[in-house]
Amino acid sequence: MVVLFLVSGLVASGLVPPSECEEVAYKVAGTYWETAKLVSVLRFDDCAGVQNAYAYVYTLSEKEFDPARYYDEHDEFWGLDRYATVIVATNYSNQPILEISNTLPAFIANRSRALECARALWGNAELSGYIYLAPLDEFFKFTTEQGVRYLHAFELKEYDLKKLTPVFLSEESSVFVSTNEHQGWQSILKAGLEIIQSNKVEGVPAAIWSYGCTPTAASMIMDYWDRNGYPKLVDYYFDRWDITEGRTDYDLTNVHQELAVAMHTDSLGTGSTSTNRIASGFRTVANSINGYSFSSSLTGTTSNSYNFGVIVSEIDAGRPAHWSVGNYQHEDRVIDHSTCAIGYLKTTTDDFVIVRNTWDRGEHLWPIQSGASYCNLCTIIPGGAQGFDLRLTNLTGTNEIYSDLAYPLSWSPKGEIAGINVLRSTNDKGTGWELFETADSSNNYILFESAAELEGSRFKIEAHSTDGLVAADGTPGKISLRTFLDQDHFDLVGHVPASIFPFGKMAVKDNYAYVVQGPRLCSIELAKDYLLPIETFAPFPAFDLTTSGDWLYVLGEEALYLYDVSSPAAVSFSDSLLIPMPYQSIVAVEPYVYLGSVDADMVVLKRVGSQLVEQATISGAKVNVFRIIDGKLYAGSSAPELRIYDLNDPSSPQLDATIPLLDPAAGVARQDSFLFVAEGVRGFEIIDLFTWNSDRIIPETINELETSNGRLFAAGKYGRLLVYDIDGTLDLPLAAKLSIPEAIIEGMALTDRIYLSAGPQGFYSFTCDLTGIEEEKPEPNRIQLNIKSLQRTGSILGNIELLRPGKVELSCFSVTGRKVMKFVREYESGIFDLPGLPDNLPSGVYFLEVKQNNQSLKAKVIVLR
């Protein structure tokens, strides 16, 4: 637990109008999140029932706010980075900002669990309010038949608030701010949250409370150093039943347990740790157990201002710190809480520490009060030989694998060793590891068939030398088996789990797929019986990528990156070129590259050797470049239109045509005389190249479009893949469908198989067998068209079969859409020859269209002179 400051006992005369509180929260939220949209407001009271704060909850995404769907028992899901909370005091004498976080407040995240717990304790219980004293010192208020009862918002344990009394060691250490108005109110209302200085250590992992707050906070620091040069600290992960909490704690690191033992934490009772054991506990685990030379020291309770200065110096040095805070008394003892300090913020009004609070996976900004003395700070400075490094590279998270597929278990060793043993655990405590397979150190993967006995297993890999165990690494989560459902005419032949980062845009060349996966580029070998990922480095974020020749072009936020993929198993960086602003899309036709953005003109680049050289900017071409087909570049813009550029001179694309759409284009594909244009949530349009008009739109939210062998493959935002027959009409009958639950399909490629990059669900390989689809029988009023080979100008083109008499219209169009012939005649039912083309028609490709009533058929003919 922690109390940074007390907001109870405020004077009613100093209350801030709700409109000003909301304005302060709005200005603070706008400083951090441009997309923040207010969705909920919670009122907080103090122990006496006096209002003392508001929590303003913002959504950072477009998803609908649903307060009933937050908590996930396994993930401790608090809407991380999808929601944000700003807690504002309601009295002018207090600091305006009491807390800022990139999560939901505990009163939303834990609401359903708290209600279940209350009814289990007291029977008929109704939630009647929220008590806020300070960050983590928060309570649900329930009205029961026994009277008013309180549950701690994080621990979900009953507390008697009458026994919570402030501790005042001296006037200087008082937790109350001055009774004068805090200067921050008017400053924030006038200019917002003005930041003077800030810094944060990136990449500090979050850990959820187990054993106690002190080893939990300490485990985050050790896990960070394990990932940054000291790899012997974290060897494996495990689950444990926590008798203190009365629930299972998931995915704990072995160093978490080691720290609890070394710090003499009361892990079976209160979870408390003596501050005198913190620094020595760090040294025991890092040095005595793992052979490093870490140094650690405790600053003590000198003053908050002094400790904040130490936090600033540690963060600026790139080191997270162990921050223990506490200033109130429960019954006859003082209670502290430990956090992991990962950053700081200095503003014109107050100073803030950025912490991981041990109860969720978010980042929280807590204000510092100068003058008070209520905290201890333990600094940890790494040292010693870094030693051998070993990292699992595949099956590294809470993976869901398919029971009938082969999977590689892969790793990346650094240094030479005598041998490697791959082990898997047989129980959640991580104590009964059994040998899975032994491999020579020169190998980098073990291929295994997933089977039912792998359900719930964890893997770890150990490196051994003549001196014994030198390094180990394990899966943070357990293996889960699943069966693929809803795969009409599809067969799943390969899958790469997404692990920590979701898969994004992709490009395929030869037998390799290059896929953006979080902050890296993942090269996936498209083998016959399994998919083998090989990680390489890529800029982050990467908006798009494409291949051309032996080169891979990756479009990053600030630059275009060129990679040599002539050796696909060993992708090498060649060059980068800074670009003036973020571009969203890229296409290439060797050696030219085209960058598109709806906010800037199209840029043309050229690869010269292994370097990128800017060629031109196409004025007025603010477009997303989608695809190059038959020497034409198809592009969309912010307007509802599709632009077609001619690439006769690839260094200077020329606008050839503009086709009006219903919504802005998001992707395009072409088959014969049809264009298919994706338009976001509206669906995709079918554009007839004979008339350049759109005759039909299919209302499916589509991200990717591809055509192959007379079929259209449309990949949807919600994990749907739809396959349509292109039969020469606008009917586009559905031939097959596939659904990947909870997936967002970001990329698709067609070769002899179908490859899908499906966000958090991973990367998939499918075959699609449509041979068993029953052909659609012609309706009575349909026409059939048979085109014969054209022998010479003026000859019979072919014949039509009419199942109903009526007027028939025959038209011929050039590839540019110009009508070169029109012929209309009344026919009876039967088979009839078509007339020849005009004598003066030049050689080339032409499209025929035959119409009768509401039916039409199209065909392509070639004229040779």
Account of the protein in words:
With 865 residues, the protein is mainly beta. The protein is 10% helix and 46% strand. The strands form 15 sheets. Strands 1, 2, 3, 4, 8, 9, 12, 13, 14, 15, 16 and 17 form a 12-stranded antiparallel beta sheet that branches. A 5-stranded antiparallel beta sheet has the order 27-52-51-50-49, with no helix packed on it. A hairpin with a 7-residue loop joins strand 15 and strand 16 (364-368). Helix 1 (18-32) packs across helix 4 and helix 6 crosses helix 7. The longest helix is centred in the N-terminal third of the chain and has 15 residues, at 18-32. It is globular, with a radius of gyration of 33 Å. The protein starts with 17 loop residues before the first helix and ends with a strand. Residues 1-13, 68-76, 165-179, 328-334, 772-781 and 788-796 have low confidence and may be disordered.
Q: Which blocks of ≥5 consecutive residues have pLDDT under 50?
A: 1-13, 68-76, 165-179, 328-334, 772-781, 788-796
The description of the largest β-sheet is: 12 strands, antiparallel
The helix tally amounts to 8
Give the N-to-C terminal Cα separation: 89 Å
Class inferred from helices and paired strands = mainly beta
Beta-strand percent range: over 45%
Counting DSSP E segments of at least 2 residues, the number of strands comes to 62
Rg on CA atoms, Å: 33 Å
- Output mean pLDDT: 83
What gross morphology would you assign?
globular
Identify the quaternary structure here. Answer: single chain
Helix content: 10-25%
